[in-house]
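Q: Got a minute? One more chain.
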Amino acid sequence: MISNTLVSFQRLGMLALVGWLTVAGSLAWGQIEDPVTWDVALYPSEEAGLHDLVVHASVDACWHIYSQDNDPNEGPVPTMFELDLPAGVQAVGEVKECTPIEEYDPNFMMDLKYFEEEVFWHQRLDLSGANSADTLKGYVVFMVCDASMCLPPEEIPILVALSDVRPGANRPDYCPPSKHLCNHGDGHGETEDEVPGDGDESEEGEKGLLWTFLLGFGLGLAALLTPCVFPMIPMTVSFFTKQSKTRAEGIRNALIYGAFIIFIYTGLGLALTAFFGVDVLNVISTDPIFNVFLFALLLVFGASFLGAFEIQLPSSWANKADQASDRGGIVGIFFMAATLAIVSFSCTGPLVGSALAGAATGSFAAPTAVMLGFSSALALPFGLFSAFPGWLNSLPQSGGWLNSVKVVLGLLEIGFAFKFLSNADLVLQLGLLQRELFIAIWIAVSLAIAFYLFGWFTLPHDSKLERIGVFRFSLGLIFMMLAIYLTPGMWGAPVNLISGFPPPTFYSEWNHGGGSGESGGHGGHVEARFDDYEEGLAAAQTEGKPMLLDFTGWACVNCRKMEEQVWSDSEVASKLTEDVVLVSLYVDDRTALPEDEHRVEQYGGKDFRIKTIGNKWSYLQASRFNRNAQPFYVMIDHDGNHIGGSAGYDPDAELFLEFLDEGLAEFNR
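A: Always. Here it is, folded:
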């Protein structure tokens, strides 16, 4: 048996880190998508006495099929093979493929390896001890996506007679050149000189890097306002202006100093990424162990900012860098910048760690962008104040307010730490940090910041607060308002201002018993009562209501968007809980069916190998409604007939209401 380990495709809770795009509202809903054609054959190998089992996939323009070399626990499902070799057949090595395209995918927010147009996989075999009457069996699992949708994972059988060996002269080129049939920007053809991926996907990637840069820049500005960095600004600028023979020389030296700050911090980000490897950033963004580690790390950073202890690099490092800075010239300026980085580490270290954690997307580009933003913000004032030294007089004096900045940053670090704990909890489905508790923690953090800024409590390192300034009072009011805004979210109300930050609405204590609503509706949120067709139909017949089928997926991002943005509408929620029996059928549920229910069905020229619950619902959707993408909604009467129209992904509650009203009107007739 040769096996690339087949893993579970059920990824509930990994929605923040992995995405599964489904059909956008602009697409037609009247066809089965079948973008891949397969051919499997045996050829004589280039190595004498051996043969190649060649699996050829022809892929429609603008679709991707994924490499074996993607992480099966993240992003789309990689292509995987399971071969059952007859007696006497020996495998030589593993299933091989050519070099795939590797690009950052903004939809999955990670680097992915994939193939376009066509791809050959080949397994080298030794058939010398085999019986030519035998048959080689197995199957290939794969997933395909285009720019707007992904289809559920499919399983294609492999069945080749050992006697059916095609001529060696017909053996294909395993690595054919790309024809570049799809322009990724607009979906039209392109010339061979054009590079795939130059369109919307690249623009989305650039936007993602821009936001990553701005994240780093914002954290860099925050670092400037800490006690370790802020007092260094006038001291350093004064040094350059006084030690330089001319004003122009002082400005030049300060600019070089700022450039070295950017070089040191950006180099740090690249060095850490190179040391651990870009793959570790994918792990950081989704792996439960790394997320728990980051949770603990940010708690430590937060406690440090609150004054519990200081995180410092060895003082000998700072002394040696300071001594080297006395050399003068460009070398001396470099070591002055290094001294700043070392001395200020107790304040900048936690923010650098937060920046790198926030940029965990699986490529060198993201950590480079975030550290470039961070260091640019740190370097900016040294250049500006050197060019305009008179501005130094407008700087506020150092004092207790700098420690207040550290305390606020520390409380925010603690709040953000729980986001990483939430990621781990969602992946493991432990139910430790559901939506209500997460929101409660952020309410507590917001109130703590507000009360601290109002001066209602102090910490050991704080100076005595004589009065509260306008800015401090206004900032306290903002955090107080945030706490008040979040409070209704404890009872299921949408909190769109932070949408996507707390756990999704379906991961909630409200959804685990208690409350009212036939379909589990709580505070505007709706949860299906059934996940089985027959059980739902029986309940609908008993209660005299139509059944609403929701074809969905655990890892379907657009399904969650519909549930959070459309089903939360009060009128939609009322109809879903009172007028219909809602049944959610998960097409990617990998729970195995009993052996006696395993079967192979055909529809639309395709074989559906039904071995799991997800296979069962995927075949039902395709054979009954001629669709195979999610989300997809249809209404069913008591005889199992489709009534009314159908709906897909469109975050417009009014359109969804029209779909519901049409079906209900036909049912009531």
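A: The chain has three domains: 2-178, 203-400, 509-668.
Q: Perfect, thanks.
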